[in-house]
Specification:
Rossmann fold; elongated; two-stranded antiparallel ribbon; 6% strand; single chain; 693 residues; 7-stranded mixed β-sheet; 2 domains; mainly alpha
Amino acid sequence: MPVPPNATHPVQNRRPIGEIEGLRGLALTLVALFHLFGNGRVSGGVDVFLFVSGFLLTLSLARRAVSGAPAALAQRYGRTLLRLTPAALVVLIATAIMVVTVLPKSGWEQSGREIIASALYFENWELISSQLAYGAAGPMTSPLQHFWSLSIQGQFFLVWPLLITGLVLLARRVRRDPLTAVAILTGIATAASFAYAWTLNAYAPDIAYFDSFARFWELGAGALLALAMGRLPHASALMRSVLGWAGLALIVASGFVVDGATSFPGPLALLPVAGAALVIVASGSPTRLGADRFLALRPMRFVARISYPLYLWHWPILIGYLAIRGYERVGLLGGAAVFALSVAVAWATQRFVVEPILDRRGSISVRRALIAPITAIAVIAAVTAGGVAGVQHQTARQQAAVDALAASNPECLGAAAMDPATRPCDNPSLAGKLFPAPNAISTESDNRPECWAGETSHEFNVCTVGPESGYERHVLAVGDSHNNTFVGAYERIAEQMNWRIDIAGHAFCYWTAAEQPVQSPAGAAACASWKSALEEHIAQSTEVDAYIVTHSRYSAVTVPEGEDRHEVVVEGMVEAWSGRPDPAAPIIAIIDNPRYPNDTSACVEQWGLDAISECPVVPRSVGLRIDDGQRDAAARSANAHVIDLTDFYCTETECPPVIGNAVVAGGWSHLTGTFAKTLAPYIAEQAAAILDR
């Protein structure tokens, strides 16, 4: 039965829901506190925000639909832009200033791309494209990371009114109830999104966390509740009190009982979403002991008032504090200071930027409400794009210069400076130069997609360097990312020795019979699949003359109760290596490189060649304290040998960040491509000696 435009409908009979403001205040408080002190855990507050956004927008659209009023989409978009854009652009400008004054140059290009993405509301997809996972705040963490949720909301605010308006017009045209049609569409879309999120979260949690389609069900759940409001049975004050407190308990408990960073937006995200739903369902006339009393407290209302600018400000302020102080984590006093400063700046933004514009919103024409914010967004995006292009050009020019010099294999570069046959080593042509160029330290890599599979990928990719025919030796190099840091070195070895070297790598996964949990169930399943494919490839590659293996000394294995981790690591390799088709083909295990502080690349970028004296130097015993197990595995295996390059990384007492004008590591774990290539002649010499025995 179609509903006439002037008919009374349940969605029109709702009073303003005051609990929503307090709910926003609570959610934002949880988000900020978990960002400050949660060490990467997720509070569930953002999930509440998404639910509330879906609820409020759909409730507004539904009321307009049943009243028969025009859709007025241009007016709606103009109001939304005026509400969201000013504060966001102020924060983006301030963050851009912080990036170029506080953060290392190596992060400027990525930050620039994220500023553009945040201004245009696709930051979540930029994070996915850049393979950046949600993580705890640190000095090297993106200061724009938190814009992912605002981007999803912005996409929803753009698309949802169009869909609902179109569906309402279609329903009226065929004389059907518009809200019934909307409810059916919303229910189907929400169920599909939930199933998609559940599936994607199982094998690619990093992608699922930011994926708009995986997140839609949280918005859709709010939309469904909005459509149901007014049709729900009336509950007593006591029942509403119980429901309200139960909802708050679910919201607050979510961050403590669930690891949302790896499980949201999967089924476990139902905890905060259901909590928010219960609080809204419990709304109504004031109660004596209900959750509404708590949510109406002045502090909650204050935080709710500044919740949007506070969300915008707290994250870049936190990242800036960590970068300036050089801390990995914020302490109690530092966290309190960051929170207090964030509140103060958020209040000022709300008071002097947001509210003056909102107060004048009625006098601003729809045309101006649309054009002014869009123009401001376009200007910021264009200026930032120009800056990114400039950084890219400068980096390319600097890197081309050092690449040209490095390609000539100058004496004393990188590992050559540690060669006992030539020490002490001095090459005037290297004076004042740093390899790679400072802006490229943290990003330089010789790895290739065709040689590599990501954490959750089930693909088995093999690439070949060197000749594919007429070669003297055929070598297979396998392992995790630490194997693939040597791709450039393997290429030089292949050219020098006339060898064919096939390379196969997988993130967090190497050649072992031990079970590897990786970082998620999806990663563990992908690793197991890759190792099965590796074993099949090895079984079919009967003409291989040698196997080069290496892996991170921090690679995880599943250790059965009562067993020793080192023994599990060693025996896993021994068992795997014993399955090669020709035992006469030696195993050549390259002992893993040391570990460095997380901020090594940023420090080297800042100090250049002075990094040896100004940046933290890792004691040799600390950098090598975790044994990768390869030495013991080789000792227990037939025809297995090790290449130990430790003396090229470290002196007798310490492991410096710069050796022979070359930066050793581009982070805490991976060698720079430049330094790895300088190791090529020493790997080739020792590998050839093993093969010639």
